[in-house]
Every structure is written in structure tokens, then in C-alpha cells.
Amino acid sequence: MSTPETVQEAPAASVETSPLARTIELTVAAKEVEAATDARLARMGKTLKIAGFRPGKVPAKVVKQHHGMQAHEEALNEIVGRAFGEAITQQNLKVAGYPRIEPKGDLLGETLTFTATFELYPEFTLADVASAEIERPVHEVTAADVDKTLEILRKQRVGYENVDRAAQKEDRVVIDFLGKKDGVAFAGGEAKDYPMVLGKGTLLPEFEAAIEGCTAGTAKTFDLTFPAEYGNTDLAGQTVQFDLNVKQVQGPVIPELDEAFVKAMGVESGKADDLHAEVEKNLKGEVKKRIHQRVREAVMEKLDTLNPIAVPKAMVEQETYRLMQNTREEMKQRGMKGDIPMQPEWFTDRALPRVRMGLILAQLVETENLVATQEQIDARIAEMAETYQHPAEVVQWYKQDRQRLAGIESEVLEENVVAWVLARAKVTEKAIDFDEIMGQQGL
């Protein structure tokens, strides 16, 4: 086998025009391929079963007639693949993804020539993070935060009772409705005994506005124009008529912070003070977790900005495919059946930064020796297990599965990176209020 030629830049017409694209010309001897093909056919002949011949006694000519093309292709792939492996090893190339190997010419003659096109992992030096500015949110949980959360918990357990007044926001109504376009009922435009809470955005705002002000027993007809971007293209931008019958109007009844409510929230003592303490403890943990997540995101964003490296197209394609498969599986778990059509371009914008960040983190972990130790992994598992009723079982559940352990190791690696960056960057603290860190919590 001849030695592969020196790496050359990919031609301008090639799809791999990035700085990471390379081509190598590979040459192999036709005799070597022929010998490897004959050897494969000989091995096949020892076990091959063909009608009219005893096992292992099939003539070589017959074996070649049946499997000659297969044996030749397998032998050629093996030899060319080995030549490619030797070439990249000799030139110390770190290949990302799989090469595209194509014949150069008609593959006749004593020497067979191939062109291997591939991409390299980027070589880069990590930018200094000493001048990086990172903002760390700060919030101390207050009694007002706890009271607000308790109010949210009470509203989440709201009940409803019939009221003798006009419907208003936060009321629960039960309605019948029938939609018509040009006097003809349209698909999906009818419902009976339909319950909904006004102000939750269950139906279009114009529809809910037509319900507000109605009392139980009200029957009315109103026009509604669907938004131009409405999902049903037959109705988008069209004006239709709805027959509406309001059957019930129920006002919200928020439970008191009494013993029954406290016990319903899992506090066996039934004491409001104990619930208050439990909520405060949980809030502190949640605030800490959310602040940490924000800091982590800020660190990752800063690393990404400081290191605008080129990314192998093959790796982006692999990550795109992985995201597609994960999304498809999630949708199936939610009840969607049949083939779920997806386009790769829907996921590319997510895949590209994920791949780039993965390369940056891998370089940082290797350069600064930020590997996850067994002690760190065990501590992380123990921390997660503490939130469950049977921690020991949770620990065992993690440790008996390599994939789950790999996920924990990945988390620890990221934690090591975040800690390393924060110890060197310019970190400033900024006080933020409760709503900013927690959001609306379902209100």
C-alpha cells in the first residue's frame, strides 16, 4: 500500500469550505484488494451453504459467482479505511465525524486512488477569562416572599360556587357554543358544557370578552374575527358568528389558611407556622438553585463569546439529529402517534451553540484538569437523593446505570468549569426582587 499524500485544503467548490475541511488522497494496490477478496471468499466457502453442495465443499468459482461482489466491496472498504486511518495517524490529525471516501477515476489498473474528505476538530487556545465580567444575582427570601407564595398555593387550590351576578375575570363558566361561517357550522367550532376560567387565555380574547358581563342563562350571538396568523388557515382572518349559551357562572372560593389547608399541603401538624417554615425552607432552596442556574448560563455565554471557534459541520449534523430524535420521543411520550415529520433546520440553531460549547468545555476540562472526581459524583448523587423519601434506593438507582452516571459526571464537570471561571473573572453582585427570580409561579 502506498503512503497517502499530504493533507490538502478542500477545493473551493466542495461543500466543506470551512477552515476545518480537509482532503487526503489515498492509493492502494489492486493486488492487495484482490488478495483480500480471495481470502474473504475462502473463509466464506468454509461455511457457505448452497443447494447441490455439501457445507464447506462449494467450489471457489461458485462462491465467487454468488458472493464475489460482496467480498470485493468489503475488502476494498477495509483496505481503504485502514489506509485512511494510517494517514491521519501519521499526520496527527484529529478527525471529527466520518470521512466521505470516493474513488478518483475508474479504479482500473494496478493502483486504485481515492479521495477522503473530512473535518478536523478545531485547534484553539482558550481566551483569558480574567477580564470577563459576570453578574451574580442576589436575593434573600423574606417573610413577604413566603406570604406571597402561600397566597399562590391557596389560589392553586381554588374552588368555585355558583354566583348570581355577571361573569368576570377569574370566574369559572360553563358554556355551549356553535360557530358558523356564512351560516354553516365549521369543524371544531362547537362544544357543549364546556368549562373554562375567564382570564386564563383558554379561548381567544374576543371570545372571552363576549362572555364577560353575561349571567347564567344568557343566550347571545356575536361576531368574531380570527387572527390572520390563526392555526386553521380556513378560518385565519375570517369573520364568523358564534351562538353562545352561558349555563353557569361560578365565582372563585380561595381556601383559608386553616388546619385543613395546611394538612392538605402535607404538613401533618396542621399548624400554619409549620407550613410557613416549610415554604420558607423550600423557597430558599429554590432561589439558590435558580440563581445558580443564572450564573451558570452567564458563565457559559461568556465562554462562548470569548471563544468564537469554528465548529465541524459533521458534529452539528449529529447534534441536530440527536435533538430531532429526542423531540420525537418526547412527543410520542405525550401521546402523539404515527410518523412525526420534522425538518433538520428547525434544530440547527440549537445544535450549533451546543456543539461549540461542548468543544470549549472539553478543552477547558483537559487544559485545567477539571475532571469530575468520584467524591464529587457521589456527593452530587447524595444531594439529589436527599429530596426523596428513600435516599438509599435513589443512590442505587443512579449507580446501577452507566448512562445516568454519565449524566451526573457531566453536571459535575460543568460545576467545576463554573467554579473555575468565577474564581478568575470579575464577578459583581446585583440584588433582584422575588418576582424576577421566581417569575409569576403560575398566577
Automatic annotation (TrEMBL):
GO terms for biological process: 'de novo' cotranslational protein folding; cell division; protein transport; protein unfolding. Its EC number is 5.2.1.8. It catalyses: [protein]-peptidylproline (omega=180) = [protein]-peptidylproline (omega=0). Residues 16-152 form the Trigger factor ribosome-binding bacterial domain. One of its GO terms (cellular component) is cytoplasm. It holds the Pfam family FKBP_C. The keyword Membrane does not apply. Keywords: Cell cycle, Cell division, Chaperone, Cytoplasm, Isomerase, Rotamase. Residues 165-246 form the PPIase FKBP-type domain. Residues 273-422 form the Trigger factor C-terminal domain. It is found in: Cytoplasm. It comes from the Bacteria. It is an enzyme of class 5 (isomerase). One of its GO terms (molecular function) is peptidyl-prolyl cis-trans isomerase activity. Involved in protein export. Acts as a chaperone by maintaining the newly synthesized protein in an open conformation. Functions as a peptidyl-prolyl cis-trans isomerase. PANTHER family: TRIGGER FACTOR CHAPERONE AND PEPTIDYL-PROLYL CIS/TRANS ISOMERASE, TRIGGER FACTOR-LIKE PROTEIN TIG, CHLOROPLASTIC. Consists of 3 domains; the N-terminus binds the ribosome, the middle domain has PPIase activity, while the C-terminus has intrinsic chaperone activity on its own. Belongs to the FKBP-type PPIase family. Tig subfamily. This is Trigger factor.
